[in-house]
Design brief:
By secondary structure, this protein is mainly beta. It has one domain: PCu(A)C copper chaperone (Immunoglobulin-like, Sandwich), CATH 2.60.40. Helices cover about 5% and strands about 50% of the residues. The termini are far apart. Bound molecules: copper (II) ion.
């Protein structure tokens, strides 16, 4: 019995796929108003591996540049600034990029994003490498995926806003 468990453990450890350690869920972007220069991207990243990882960058064909942003609040003022070192995704943890916190910022848009479409974003991780992720484009004021599991992206105000 002991031998069998050991054998199973060994065969599992032999899988060298780092990409499988990173799981991206509920990735969505906000639709853009006409001529908007930027769009926000939001997602949950889970690290199922036993190695720390780090989201270091992103790119998409609809944007000339994509940055990882931090959001800070001081009073009623929200400020964003780029995080040049990216965001740590510690082993065994999950990290959320949300509309009120850290997020992806798609800049120099070469086209608008339309509600209902799906766009592909390539995320770069220090360990896992490049991971292509489909982002659902929600309403202009999308705040989160609906918690009914339908995969719909729902607008601001749904589920209560903390103001
Ligand atoms: Cu931003």
């Amino acid at each position: 019995m002991k031998t069998m468990i050991l054998a199973l453990a060994l065969s599992f450890a032999a899988l060298p796929s780092f990409a499988q350690q990173i799981e991206v869920r509920e990735a969505f972007a906000r639709a853009t108003l006409p001529n908007a220069p930027v769009a926000g991207g939001y997602l949950t990243i889970a690290n199922h591996g036993d190695r720390d990882d780090r989201l270091t960058g992103a790119r998409a064909d609809f944007a000339g540049e994509a940055q990882i942003h931090e959001m800070t609040h001081s009073g009623d003022v929200m400020r964003m600034r780029p995080l040049p070192d990216g965001i740590a995704i510690p082993a065994g943890q999950q990290v959320q990029l949300s509309t009120g916190g850290n997020h992806l910022m798609f800049m120099k848009l070469n086209r608008g994003l339309k509600q209902g479409e799906t766009v592909v974003v390539t995320l770069t991780f220090q360990t896992a490498g490049e991971v292509e992720v489909p982002f659902a484009v929600g309403p202009v004021n999308a705040r989160s995926f609906d918690d009914d599991g339908s995969g719909r992206v729902v607008p601001e105000g749904h589920g209560g806003h903390s103001h």
